[in-house]
């Protein structure tokens, strides 16, 4: 059985890819914190079923970006992205809705979750190697 067929490892890989893409989106939000009329974006967290399969319907993580007002064409369904429901709550007069404190908290949480996913992935690989006698 190839290692790519193990659903738990596939779920962890998808989760790590999601964290990498989310880090990029959050970094863009921070970089555009002074851009007029910029609305912050975020990704919808992938859902997994009990067997580790993708329960959100998509086979892979789509890399499409959206803004709160328009959609830019991408490779996956638009449901993989979260609209900022609080946009406009702290919108500055220039129309920028980026809250740097919120973005930094999301970046920190994303980094910790990514570290946890990579730790689980590497430990799972180590267990598999021990099981086949190659550790």
From TrEMBL:
Localized where?
Answer: Bacterial flagellum basal body
According to the record, the residues making up region (Disordered) are 52-95
Q: Which GO terms describe its cellular component?
A: bacterial-type flagellum basal body, rod
Q: Which domain of life is it from?
A: Bacteria
| Keywords, sorted A to Z | Bacterial flagellum, Cell projection, Cilium, Flagellum
Q: Where does this chain mainly localize?
A: other
**One GO biological process from the UniProt record?**
bacterial-type flagellum-dependent cell motility
Q: Where is the Flagellar basal body rod protein N-terminal domain?
A: 13-39
Q: Where is the composition biased (Polar residues)?
A: 65-82
- InterPro entries the UniProt entry points to: Flag_bb_rod_N (IPR001444), Flagellar_basal_body_rod_CS (IPR019776), FlgB (IPR006300)
What does the record give as the function of this protein? Structural component of flagellum, the bacterial motility apparatus. Part of the rod structure of flagellar basal body.
Q: Which family does it belong to?
A: Belongs to the flagella basal body rod proteins family.
Tell me the subunit arrangement. Answer: The basal body constitutes a major portion of the flagellar organelle and consists of a number of rings mounted on a central rod. In Gram-negative bacteria, at least four rings, L, P, S and M are present, whereas Gram-positive bacteria lack the L and P rings. The rod consists of about 26 subunits of FlgG in the distal portion, and FlgB, FlgC and FlgF build up the proximal portion of the rod with about 6 subunits each.
In Swiss-Prot or TrEMBL terms, this protein is called: Flagellar basal body rod protein FlgB
Source organism of this protein record: Nitrobacter hamburgensis (strain DSM 10229 / NCIMB 13809 / X14)
Taxonomic lineage per UniProt?
Answer: Bacteria, Pseudomonadati, Pseudomonadota, Alphaproteobacteria, Hyphomicrobiales
């Amino acid at each position: 059985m190839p290692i790519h067929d193990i659903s738990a490892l596939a779920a962890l890989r998808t989760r790590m890819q999601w964290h990498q893409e989310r880090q990029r989106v959050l970094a863009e939000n921070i970089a555009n914190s002074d851009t007029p009329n910029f609305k912050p974006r975020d990704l919808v967290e992938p859902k997994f079923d009990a067997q580790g399969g993708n329960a959100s319907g998509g086979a892979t993580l789509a890399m499409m970006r959206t803004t709160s007002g328009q959609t830019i064409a991408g490779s996956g369904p638009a449901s993989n992205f979260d609209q900022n429901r609080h946009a406009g709550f702290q919108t500055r007069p220039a129309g920028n809705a980026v809250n740097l404190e919120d973005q930094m908290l999301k970046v920190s949480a994303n980094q910790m979750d990514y570290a946890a996913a990579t730790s689980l992935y590497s430990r799972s690989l180590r267990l598999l190697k021990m099981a086949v006698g190659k550790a």
